[in-house]
Amino acid sequence: MDALLLHGLGGGPADMDSLAQELATMDVACHAPCLPGHGTGWEAFVRSHWNQWSAAAHEAYAALAGQSPEPPLLAGYSLGGLLALDTLFWAREAGLPAPRCLLVFAAPLYWSSRPGRLGERALRWRLAWKAWRQPVEICSPRSEAARETAPWQGHERVVCWRHMAEIAHEQPRLRALLPACDVPVCYVQLWHDSSCPRRNAVEWICTASRRAETHVLRTVSRHGGHLPLSHRESRDEVVRIACNFVRAVLES
To answer: What kind and span of H or E run contains 122?
Structure first.
């Protein structure tokens, strides 16, 4: 069996290493492509955009679905989780088999912790304004404590507000698709994730039409809230949850 693993914004295939290593022990062949604009300098990163990322995810899924009679697994972290949901419905329209299941980690269908359309609309306008006023922002590096708690390889100092605005534009469309999700879904995030509020966990489990389970894990350290797959306190548990879910799906 194959699995397509999609990494997060600004990161790379290493985002999915801990999951890929455990899936490999289950005889799952993992494929973790590097999304356009990632894995190179920050100039290429800020030039990349949603249409390029989604096209790359679609192409990678089509290649896997076409080489084996068994549908692949589909997994994604953060941006990759949103791309996984997008790819699921693209595959349906393209006449390709649906994945056996979705494994989703800290994927923000909402960025705001406050419910209501007005708040979401205001946030989209704010991000669009920031993208126009200051497309790229250079931030302070992560602290040594943060790096020790949750190692991560990527553009940690570069924030492209156009990227954030593009993702915010896609979020309502993806939320509207979720009720038609007809494959089993496992969703995991950390309790103190400031980039992906806990209402996202509720959205994934309450809206998906098929079997869905969600896990919101607590950690002692407040660092690395958006890095469930690399956080030293949560990494093993997140991988265990995901792989147990895969085993249950395959057995059923």
So the answer is: helix 117-133
Instruction: Give, in order, the Cα–Cα distances in Å from 91 to each of 72, 73, 163, 195.
Output: 12, 13, 24, 28
Query: Cβ contacts of residue 140 below 8 Å, gap of 6+?
Result: 157
Q: In this predicted model, what pLDDT tens digit does every residue of 46-100 receive, in sequence order?
A: 999 999 999 999 999 999 998 888 899 999 999 999 999 999 999 999 999 999 9
Predicted structure pTM score: 0.94
Identify whether the C-beta of residue 161 lies closer than 8 Å to the C-beta of residue 135. yes
Residues 224, 175: Cα–Cα separation, whole Å: 25
d(CA 176, CA 192): 26
Helix (H) or strand (E) holding 128, with range, is helix 117-133
Give strand pairing partners of 104: 76, 187
